[in-house]
Amino acid sequence: MEPYVSLISDVGFPIVVTFYLLHRIEAKLDCVIESIQNLPHQLAEHKGNVSQ
Q1: Contact by Cβ (8 Å): 42, 30
Q2: What is the pTM of this model?
Q3: What is the mean pLDDT of residues 25-51?
Q4: Residue 29 structural domain
């Protein structure tokens, strides 16, 4: 707990909250990036299924 208190006193509360929130949503952003990268493949599969 001591490192967090010293970090808050050094850089300020808003910056610490921002870093915490960015750390929390990192995994969710990774899932979004993966979904976007897989989208062309999924669209090609869907297009192939529709034409059959």
Answers
A1: no
A2: 0.51
A3: 88
A4: 2-51
